[in-house]
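Field log, afternoon session.

UNIT: design team B
ACTIVITY: writing a sequence onto a fixed backbone
BACKBONE:
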């Protein structure tokens, strides 16, 4: 029994040794398999890192590739606009100097009568017919001068508009004549009636009014207005004598309108130059009587 026991023990021990060897052999066989499996898993993980699934798009790490869009790429920011350079201010153009018409000193001494007639103007008083004459040889139309004088006598601030007489332009049978003459001829006509006009002034004679061409064309240095307005003063002043206002007037006060019967060409004495007998409200402009 004892020997059998010993034999049995040995048999059992040998069996255990054989079992250990078998397990060791199996373990040695499994190691390469496990290593291969691990390697396969590593490759799969690496592939999974570089392959993006079923759509086959590259999903490798790094900056993403831009995707195409239907829109245009965003424009680059525009450079800042340069500040506009201020344009230099244009220099004011100098005002043109009024062209002075050359006035002849002397003429032929004969006159052309304007062939023009008109309607009587005015709302009261005696009717006075007049004709207009211009000295021959000067560049002034007698007809145009007559038309301008007719407008002057019909002005709403004139004599006719305020009952101081009615006036009518005619070519013959005139009650008085308005002559426009060169300075030398005007002096001669005025001197025949005892007046010295010094080549500068106008006058009223027994036959009518004498207008110095120089004053008609150039106006007066004391008159604050154009020559065509000064012509109103010439006609209104001399026709004022013709209707019976024989004396001259002076300035009524500083800053006030000068009377049309004032010899304004000789100085205003503080008054404002004025070409009309009446103001805009229809009030007669008067002043102190002077010799």
């Amino acid at each position: 029994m004892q020997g059998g026991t010993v034999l049995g023990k040995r048999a059992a021990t040998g069996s255990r040794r054989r079992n250990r060897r078998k397990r060791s052999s199996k373990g040695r066989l499994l190691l390469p398999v496990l290593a291969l499996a691990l390697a396969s898993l590593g490759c799969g993980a690496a592939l999974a890192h570089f392959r993006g699934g079923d759509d086959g798009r590259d999903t490798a790490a790094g900056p993403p590739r831009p995707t195409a869009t239907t829109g245009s790429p965003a424009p680059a920011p525009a450079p800042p606009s340069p500040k506009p350079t201020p344009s230099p201010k244009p220099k004011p153009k100098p005002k043109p100097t009024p062209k002075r018409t050359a006035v002849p000193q002397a003429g032929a001494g004969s006159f052309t009568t304007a062939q023009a007639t008109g309607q009587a103007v005015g709302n009261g008083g005696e009717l006075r017919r007049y004709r207009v004459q211009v000295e021959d040889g000067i560049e002034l139309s007698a007809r145009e001068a007559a038309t301008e004088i007719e407008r002057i006598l019909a002005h709403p601030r004139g004599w006719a508009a305020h009952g101081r007489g009615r006036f009518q332009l005619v070519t013959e049978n005139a009650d008085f004549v308005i002559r426009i003459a060169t300075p030398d001829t005007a002096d001669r006509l005025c001197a025949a009636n005892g007046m010295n006009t010094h080549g500068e002034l106008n006058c009223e004679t027994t036959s009518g009014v004498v207008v110095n061409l120089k004053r008609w064309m150039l106006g007066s240095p004391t008159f604050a207005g154009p020559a065509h307005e000064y012509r109103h003063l010439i006609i209104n002043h001399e026709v004022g004598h013709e209707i019976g206002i024989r004396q001259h007037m002076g300035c009524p006060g500083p800053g006030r309108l000068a009377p049309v019967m004032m010899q304004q060409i000789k100085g205003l004495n503080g008054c404002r130059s004025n070409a009309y007998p009446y103001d805009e409200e229809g009030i007669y402009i008067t002043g102190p009587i002077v010799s």
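LOG NOTE: The first strand starts at residue 111 and ends at 113.
NEXT ACTIVITY: expression trials, pending approval
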